[in-house]
């Protein structure tokens, strides 16, 4: 691949353009908002000048509802040898293209499983996709050359290719992305009019649950409008779980011993099922989840503190497997939770104590 055309210079399109440009590909940028394309150009993602002829690969980074129109336009004017889209829904756009009677041998649907709460070209980064799954949904008609171009793009972005059926992909992202986003938003909505005294008690748990609720509503309306059925099916199941949980909690309030016992059993069932589902979430590098020990360190909110901790851990010969930071409300301090292999926890604890760090149990 020597040339590419990115149509849509938001977070995903600009990030892909940055990755390609960094690897020597000439990238042409276009967007229905010319100012956004100029911003991506200023960031070094490519040029906003039109290509002189067909490029090797056209990357359509438009909202799902617009993908078919944008792809059809690019195909009809012969903009490229191969065409992909990076929308988060795959079945609908493909069926729209088929209904138009277009030759889809030069097209393959894709979806990089990566993103941020922020949107637009200014949020883009050339390493956004590194180590992340990038789904490919080829059909029997997909030309091998186009598949290879898509794989080359994924390689340049240092992502991991995953081949799936388009409709299976849509059901999967409804489960692991679309439905959780709505649930996160519903939880966050409870905070909108909550008393300030209650909100000040927020800890890391509520931050984790509501983090993705900060995303752009306009973008998510586009996404959910393209995949409403599978998301609604999942929320129906969640609603049933909620009804059972409410009944169980009401049972715990009952004066009847049997109803209290049933209520406790119901709550225990929900929590155990949650445990069983959580352990299936892939761990580091996509592997099966590992059990780590946590070493908690109190730090001041000052520049260089994290760098010092990681350097001290390195000097002790301990690899930090994961890290979380719990900020102290209203204070210039935080609790850094360092996840390490169980056998390394004692070594790290001793080393950090020797270097003056305040360890918390």
TrEMBL record:
Give the UniProt record's GO annotations in the biological process aspect.
tyrosine biosynthetic process
A GO molecular function term, named singly, is:
prephenate dehydrogenase (NADP+) activity
* InterPro entries tied to this protein: 6-PGluconate_DH-like_C_sf (IPR008927), ACT-like_dom_sf (IPR045865), ACT_dom (IPR002912), NAD(P)-bd_dom_sf (IPR036291), PDH_C (IPR046825), PDH_N (IPR046826), Preph/Arog_dehydrog (IPR050812), Prephen_DH (IPR003099)
Q: Can you state which reaction this protein catalyses?
A: prephenate + NAD(+) = 3-(4-hydroxyphenyl)pyruvate + CO2 + NADH
Q: Where is the Prephenate/arogenate dehydrogenase domain?
A: 2-283
A Pfam family this protein belongs to?
PDH_C
Work out whether the entry's keyword set contains NAD: yes
Report the domain of life of the source organism. Bacteria
Report the EC code(s) recorded for this entry.
Answer: 1.3.1.12
Q: Does the keyword Oxidoreductase apply?
A: yes
Q: Where is the ACT domain?
A: 294-361
Keyword line: Amino-acid biosynthesis, Aromatic amino acid biosynthesis, NAD, Oxidoreductase, Tyrosine biosynthesis
Listed pathway(s): Amino-acid biosynthesis; L-tyrosine biosynthesis; (4-hydroxyphenyl)pyruvate from prephenate (NAD(+) route): step 1/1
NCBIfam families, per database record = PRK06545.2-1, PRK06545.2-3, PRK06545.2-4
Question: What's the family?
Answer: Belongs to the prephenate/arogenate dehydrogenase family.
| Protein name, entry field | Prephenate dehydrogenase
Species of provenance: Streptomyces parvulus
Organism lineage string: Bacteria, Bacillati, Actinomycetota, Actinomycetes, Kitasatosporales
């Amino acid at each position: 691949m020597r040339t590419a055309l990115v149509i849509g210079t938001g977070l995903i399109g600009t990030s892909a353009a940055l990755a390609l440009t960094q690897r020597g590909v000439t990238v042409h940028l276009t967007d229905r908002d010319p100012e956004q394309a100029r911003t991506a150009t200023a960031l070094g993602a490519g040029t906003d000048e039109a290509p002189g002829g067909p490029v090797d690969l056209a990357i359509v980074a438009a909202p799902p509802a617009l993908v078919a129109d944008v792809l059809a336009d690019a195909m009809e004017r012969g903009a490229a040898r191969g065409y992909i889209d990076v929308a988060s829904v795959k079945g609908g756009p493909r069926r729209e293209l088929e209904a138009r009677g277009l030759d889809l041998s030069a097209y393959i649907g894709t979806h990089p499983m990566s993103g941020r709460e922020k949107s637009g070209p200014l949020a883009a980064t050339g390493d956004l996709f590194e180590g992340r799954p990038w789904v490919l949904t080829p059909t029997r008609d997909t030309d091998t050359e186009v598949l290879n171009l898509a794989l080359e793009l994924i390689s340049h972005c240092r992502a991991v290719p995953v081949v799936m059926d388009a409709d299976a992909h849509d059901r999967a992202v409804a489960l692991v992305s679309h439905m959780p986003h709505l649930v996160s938003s519903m939880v966050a909505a409870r905070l909108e009019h909550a008393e300030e005294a209650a909100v000040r008690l927020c800890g890391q748990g509520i931050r984790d649950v509501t983090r993705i609720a900060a995303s752009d509503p306009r973008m998510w309306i586009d996404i959910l409008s393209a995949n409403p059925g599978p998301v609604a099916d999942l929320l129906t199941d969640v609603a049933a779980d909620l009804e059972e949980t409410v009944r169980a909690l009401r049972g715990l309030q009952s004066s009847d011993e049997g109803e209290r016992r049933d209520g406790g059993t119901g709550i225990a069932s929900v929590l155990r099922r949650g445990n069983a589902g959580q352990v299936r979430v892939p761990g580091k590098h996509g592997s099966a989840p590992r059990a780590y020990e946590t070493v908690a360190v109190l730090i001041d909110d000052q520049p260089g503190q994290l760098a010092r901790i990681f350097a001290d851990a390195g000097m002790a010969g301990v690899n930090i497997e994961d890290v979380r930071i719990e900020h102290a409300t209203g204070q210039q301090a935080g609790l850094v939770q360092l996840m390490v292999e169980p056998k390394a926890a004692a070594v790290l604890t001793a080393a950090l104590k020797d270097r003056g760090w305040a360890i918390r149990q």
